[in-house]
Amino acid sequence: MSERQEGHFVSLARKWRPRTFGAVIGQEHVTLTLRNAIRIGRLHQAYLFCGPRGVGKTTTARLVARALNCQRLQPDGEPCNECPPCHSILEGRSLDVLEIDGASNNSVEDVRRLRESAKYPPTEGRYKLYIIDEVHMLSLSAFNALLKILEEPPAHVVFVLATTDPQKVPPTVLSRCQRFDFRRLSLERIAEHLQYVAQQEGVYLEPAAAAALARKAEGSLRDGLVLLDQAIAFCGANISLPALTSLLRLVDTEMLFRLTTALQEGDAKAVLELVHEGVRRGYDVQEFAEALAEHFRHLVVVRATGSTQLLDLPPEVAQRYAVEAERLSLADVMNWLAILHTTQQAMRYSAQPRVRLEVGLVQMALLERAVELAELLRMVEQLSQRGASSATPLTTAEPTSEGRASRPTSSPAPPAPASMEAKLQALQELLLREAATRAAYQAGEITVRAELGRLMLSTTQPFLRDLLRQRLPQLREELRRQFGSGIDIYLGEDLQEPSAPEGSEALKLVEAQLQTLLQAQRVPFTAPPKDRL
What we know:
CATH superfamily of the largest domain: P-loop containing nucleotide triphosphate hydrolases
């Protein structure tokens, strides 16, 4: 086909439209079935082609029309594209192939006219084909009017219905058709075909630029060819990735990796600077957020699966994601993705979407690292079991397996009055009631004792001391409600051990993780470090 017809330029999407079933890219499961059906004569009266835009539904319908009317059909079921019926269909002047737009011909009257014209035999070929594009746009009454002729059409009539939304097609229509689902094309297939077309057109298309065009096409080969046309008009005979980045406003992948590093380091300043840099480059904030969501998705996939097989990316870019994912926690990236999803929803209805994006990114940067609660509790349980056999301080109430504190047995102590024992037991129950203090109390890091008519709380951990100091007013009020009188509760001096207990290093780790957990649960505990503000 010549590049110009009657003085008009022919776009690449039209010029490189497949003329045989074998030339249809990425839909072998459809083309092979149709070729075999045409070759052996097992032809159905109605077909339903479903799939996203630009993957070959209408093209395949026209190929079916040519194959059914071809006078010199090839042994493999391919049309010859040389006989008069093939020529007339290729040129769009055949009276036996009627393409109907379902969006503008969606009434009962339109279907009635179709039924009347279907009675007449074909003028040139053996079959008359009705190709109804976007058939889901028909009204319910029009669908009902189409049912009878769709199920029992004249012997010379074949229907091909094409739609991008098969869920809107009534089940009564679906049951009368053979359904073929067209697949979205992979990035590799689109990039490979774009490079082939560019080579045939005398244009050098850089592999990275071909991958960028394929990513922008989102699985549609037609969209990829349209973008290639635009790139040739902008870049000329040499298409490079930097030129495409400015043309198509593609978000630089390197900038996304820098943003991930800033989020991991909690650097809010660097995050805001990167947003400013993106706006200065001309990125739309909505597109920037979409690119960041896709970036996070790649990291989640690599981190969750441990491989890059599920990434539809060039090998060198996929390897970069594999290296980056090793430095990140899956829980952290999932938290970022959740915040970004909420931010994107707010950006759609905000008068200042950039502000919403910046707020969401700063929130990600200041978000504490995720803590696996199950792992923390497991470590606390192990340390509790390990410390159960070690010596404990005198007059220390050790918690039992039922969560109750037993009386000290290491050194005999004068028995406390019954009322003080009840108060001591009530205080222990209050400590076990809250998640923030229960784990530490069961591990023996918080001790309770009665001394001179007062209740004393002691701990060796600085962060637990701060926590207990903030809990004292609440504990006093709870005990006053139970016993009807004020009770003195004090935070005693730290209990000094003669030597470091076994597992002290692990206790330090538990301390750090518990501190992060309390902050993540928004428990009033301590102010964040100044360098994170």
